[in-house]
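Design job #97: recover the sequence.
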């Protein structure tokens, strides 16, 4: 289901079901964005993003587009915060399999999924940072040129150029597999 202005209005009026639908639509986008940006625990940061959004939800304007822009702005800010925190003090936690009670998928399934994600991230990482940021926000987060311009603090014309150059570079990288191995 696509988020609508009516759904946002219902959520702002206190409808828990509407809030759940908005979360269900936007959380995979936020997780994907954070993962593509290299956040080590995108699910945890996504939880932080939505806790922040929930606190400010009644004050968000602009309907569905405004909510999407606000959520991705908060996600971008949390990604920057996480990167700064990791640069200051990396946290290493040993994995103890004997204490892990979770059930996992088959190794084959995990490996295949990981290869696909790793391939996509590897190709995206070959783009300059500004182009990668714009392509992720435009394609993955489905934001408008104006919304992306607001988030990355550039003009709409600059965002259009970055998107064009990024998409052309991605096309070239995907057409020539030798380029991906560099």
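Job complete. Output follows.
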């Amino acid at each position: 289901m696509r988020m609508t202005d009516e759904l946002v209005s219902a959520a702002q009026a206190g409808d828990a079901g509407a809030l759940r639908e908005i979360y269900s639509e936007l959380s995979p986008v936020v997780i994907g964005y954070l993962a593509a940006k290299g956040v080590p625990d995108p699910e945890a940061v996504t939880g932080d993003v939505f806790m922040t959004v929930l606190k400010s939800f009644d004050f968000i304007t602009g309907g569905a587009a405004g909510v999407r822009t606000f959520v991705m702005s908060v996600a971008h800010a949390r990604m920057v915060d996480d990167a700064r925190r990791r640069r200051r003090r990396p946290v290493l936690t040993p994995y103890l399999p004997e204490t892990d009670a979770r059930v996992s998928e088959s190794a084959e399934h995990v490996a295949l999924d990981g290869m696909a994600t790793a391939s996509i991230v590897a190709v995206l990482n070959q783009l300059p940072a500004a182009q990668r940021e714009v392509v992720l926000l435009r394609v993955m987060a489905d934001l408008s040129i104006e919304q992306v311009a607001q988030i990355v603090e550039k003009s709409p014309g600059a965002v259009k150029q970055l998107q064009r150059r990024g998409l052309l570079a991605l096309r070239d990288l995907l057409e020539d597999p030798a380029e991906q191995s560099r």
